[in-house]
From TrEMBL:
Secretion signal span: 1-24
Lineage: Eukaryota, Metazoa, Chordata, Craniata, Vertebrata
InterPro entries named in the record: C2_dom, C2_domain_sf, C2B_Copine, Copine, Copine_C
Name of this protein: Copine-9
Record family assignment: Belongs to the copine family.
GO biological process, one term: cellular response to calcium ion
Alphabetized PROSITE patterns for the sequence: C2 (PS50004)
Assigned GO CC terms: plasma membrane
Length: 436
């Protein structure tokens, strides 16, 4: 609902939602409510449902302010269905059936919200149970029509339509009973054959709903993310006075390190209320005696390595470039030890980080398997926009660097039975900016 108060005159009020595109900064219309005639107090029915991406900055703009935003814990529906005596579609008298679920929209259209797996060579399939957010199924309207199409899978993609039926979240939530046995109807066959009854039946075997907390729930409950920076000051980066160096200080554009810091930092900083970020460098000789350090604070203060905001980190980084001498070797174990307070010896930065990145194979030590993937290795060069658009490059980088964090936090909390605290009135979502 989008209730709006005290509009200036009797008119035809409507709310239009815009999303700002990354890179071009262009505002594009995402959707609009229905028009309500002649009222200063419209109560809109149309809902806007957007996916929340922690790793992206999502700028939104409404032409009228909304006070009803409520993103809270969502319900997950788990269900299982089977079918009986479906129409034969294949040459050998069988079918390879699967189901496609559609949520109805306010304008009468339908949006796909789930596809089951294909069960091969049968007219009586039993599909595996699956889960789906209740919001995706009905958008908060329990009586909203849910349409289900039944298809026979074909290898070339030209799947044969067997039939369809309709239901609703409210019907499904009643569980297995006589009302949740659905006739699969094919309108074309029904129109051609007078004795046509149906193309089979689909039965709901089970249905349950569970509440599942989201990353947003923890953030709204006061969960904070700490952000620490470590910058490679080894000579392998090249001479900072040369354009080929990753540390090159160009008067016209940011270098690679500054771009990476700004891209990630501008998003992550909004999840830490004090915005004090410890920032270190490693692999450099420090003034005045040229001693090599692998964990020196960019602030220059050993007792206080914090920088204020990402701009403070960038300022300290630029100042360090002017005072330290790039050297080596590449050893970021001391920085990791400062942050994690554990031993970790890493010699080669790329190979070691890739080994720690457990996307494919979970890292292990002394026979003990890591509980979670603990590192996300992202080669910056892969995200450089060919047209030279730094904003787009930074957005791509931040998206992949940060994409795993929400699931990492949720898996940790769930494994320990930790639930989010009640939402704090002073902790709105950081990156869902509303512009009026």
């Amino acid at each position: 609902m989008l209730p709006i108060w005290r509009l200036p005159s009797l008119s035809l009020p409507v709310v239009v939602l815009y999303i700002q595109a990354v890179g071009t900064k262009e505002w594009r219309e995402f959707g609009r409510t229905e028009v309500i005639d002649n009222t200063r107090n419209p109560d809109f029915v149309r809902k806007f449902v957007l996916d929340f991406f922690f790793e992206e900055k999502q700028n939104l703009r409404y032409n009228v302010d909304s006070r009803s935003c409520n993103i809270s814990k969502h319900d997950i529906a788990t269900m299982q269905l089977c079918a009986n005596k479906l129409d034969k579609k294949d040459f050998f008298g069988k079918s390879d059936p699967f189901l496609v679920f559609y949520r109805s929209n306010e304008d009468g259209t339908f949006t796909i919200c789930h596809k089951t797996e294909v069960v091969k060579n049968t007219l009586n399939p039993v599909w595996q149970s699956f889960t789906i957010p209740v919001r995706a199924l009905c958008n908060g309207d329990y009586d909203r029509t849910v349409k289900v199409d039944v298809y026979d899978w074909d290898r070339d993609g030209s799947h044969d339509f067997i039939g369809e039926f309709t239901t609703s979240y409210r019907e499904l939530s009643r569980g297995q009973n006589q009302f949740n046995v659905y006739e699969v109807l094919n309108p074309k066959k029904k129109g051609k054959k007078k004795k046509y009854i149906n193309s089979g039946t689909v039965t709901l075997l089970s249905f349950k709903v569970e509440s599942e907390y989201t990353f947003v729930d923890f953030i709204r409950g006061g969960t904070q993310l700490n952000f620490t920076v470590a910058i490679d000051f080894t000579a392998s980066n090249g001479n900072p006075s040369q354009p080929t160096s990753l540390h090159y200080m160009s008067p016209y554009q940011m270098n690679a390190y500054a771009m990476a810091l700004k891209a990630v930092g501008e998003i992550i900083q909004d999840y830490d209320s004090d915005k004090l970020f410890p920032a270190y460098g490693f692999g450099a000789k420090l003034p005045p005696d040229g001693k090599i350090s692998h964990a020196f604070p960019l602030s220059g203060d050993n007792d206080n390595p914090n920088c204020v905001g990402i701009e403070g980190v960038l300022e300290a980084y630029f100042q360090s470039l002017r005072t330290v001498q790039l050297y080596g070797p590449t050893n970021f174990a001391p920085v990791i030890n400062k942050v994690a307070n554990r031993k970790c010896i890493l010699d080669n930065k790329h190979t070691a980080m890739e080994e720690l990145d457990g996307d494919e194979v979970r890292v292990s030590s002394r026979g003990r398997l890591a509980e979670r993937d603990i590192v996300q290795f992202v080669p910056f060069r892969d995200y450089i926009d060919r047209s030279g658009n730094q904003v787009l490059s930074m957005a791509r980088l931040a998206k992949d660097v940060l994409a795993e964090i929400p699931d990492q936090l949720l898996s940790f909390m769930k494994s320990r039975g930790i639930e989010p605290r009640p939402a704090l009135s002073s902790s709105p979502l950081p990156q869902l900016h509303r512009h009026i």
